[in-house]
């Protein structure tokens, strides 16, 4: 049987949250989506996640959530990371960092979908262990009945994401990249049956600089005087991929990049 997954990239601030929750009911119904996975580390005013926003995502139809380099930006999310079974920290955070490395959702069809997250180390300014060693270790903990495995590679360097794709081909169902907020046009199914895209893009305001006010970012870049980067508001889109995965083999059979503007559905 084929299982349909929607993987959504970096949800930025209130505009991204609203657009996603307003879009999900019709999109999931029209496309027959069985599981929704979203990177939500930029949901709280552009940086981090709060317990209240976590609850709103869960109530709004997001089944599994991933984080990235802003995983601990809001310290009040730590108890949620430790308690909830539907959100993951990056698996290559240092030993003892709070949160779960794997989250599993059972679809209405009875199929289990596991999600993991990884942090890149090139140009990221984070203290993280090797993502290659971490994913090998984390995958070894999965039960045999979990055939559908999705990995969010939260990284700046395209080379690091592509390398991880080849490292995991034939071992997981899907690897989607996040963090750059710019969608890439390289969605593909690798020879071992893994769906891959270097970056799924941003769910948020695209009339911006990566979701932030153009004016503030330009001022800071031109003058070198720091300026608060407020979240922009216009041209809000949902960016991501829809993939089909065989519940028997765990192989990806189809991958489609999507970008939805207000009024598209």
CATH architecture: 4-Layer Sandwich
In which range does the helix fraction lie?
10-25%
Largest sheet descriptor = 7 strands, mixed
Assign the CATH topology.
Purple Acid Phosphatase, chain A, domain 2
Give the CA-based shape.
globular
Report the sheet-strand fraction: 25-35%
**What is the count of β-strands?**
13
CATH class division: Alpha Beta
Number of helices: 6
Poorly predicted tracts of residues: none
Q: What structural category characterises the helix and strand content?
A: alpha/beta
Question: What pattern of helices and strands is seen along the backbone?
Answer: EHEHEHEEEHEHEEEEHEE
First-last Cα distance: 27 Å
Overall mean pLDDT stands at: 97
Structural write-up:
The protein is of the alpha/beta class and 265 residues long. The protein has one domain: Purple Acid Phosphatase, chain A, domain 2, CATH 3.60.21. It contains six helices and 13 strands. The longest helix is centred in the first third of the chain and has 19 residues.
List the helices and strands and how they pair.
Blueprint: E1 2-8, H1 13-31, E2 35-39, H2 51-59, E3 64-66, H3 78-83, E4 87-88, E5 103-106, E6 112-119, H4 131-139, E7 148-154, H5 158-168, E8 174-178, E9 188-189, E10 195-197, E11 204-205, H6 214-223, E12 236-246, E13 252-261
Parallel strand pairs: 1-2, 2-3, 3-4, 6-7, 7-8, 8-10
Antiparallel strand pairs: 1-12, 5-6, 9-10, 11-12, 12-13
């Amino acid at each position: 049987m084929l299982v349909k997954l929607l993987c959504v990239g970096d949800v930025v601030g209130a505009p991204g949250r609203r657009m996603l929750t307003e879009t999900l009911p019709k999109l999931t119904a029209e496309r027959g989506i069985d599981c929704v996975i979203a990177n939500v580390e930029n949901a709280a005013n552009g940086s981090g996640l709060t317990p209240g926003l976590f609850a709103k995502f869960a109530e709004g139809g997001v089944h599994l959530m991933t984080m990235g380099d802003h995983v601990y930006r809001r310290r009040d999310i730590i108890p949620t990371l430790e308690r909830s079974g539907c959100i993951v920290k990056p698996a290559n955070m240092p030993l003892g960092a709070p949160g779960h490395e794997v989250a599993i959702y059972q679809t209405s069809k009875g199929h289990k979908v596991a999600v993991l997250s990884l942090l890149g180390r090139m140009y990221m300014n984070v203290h993280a262990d090797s993502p290659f060693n971490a994913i090998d270790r984390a995958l070894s903990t999965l039960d045999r009945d979990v055939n559908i495995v999705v990995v969010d590679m939260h990284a700046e360097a395209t080379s690091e994401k592509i390398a991880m794709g080849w490292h995991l081909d034939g071992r997981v169902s899907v690897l989607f990249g996040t963090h750059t907020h710019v969608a890439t046009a390289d969605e593909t199914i690798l020879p071992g049956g893994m769906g891959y895209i270097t970056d799924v893009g941003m769910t948020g305001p695209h009339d911006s600089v990566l979701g932030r006010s153009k004016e503030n970012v330009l001022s800071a870049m031109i003058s070198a005087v720091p300026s608060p980067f407020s979240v922009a508001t216009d041209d809000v889109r949902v960016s991501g991929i829809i993939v089909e995965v065989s519940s028997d083999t765990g192989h990806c059979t189809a991958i489609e990049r999507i970008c939805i503007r207000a009024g598209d559905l």
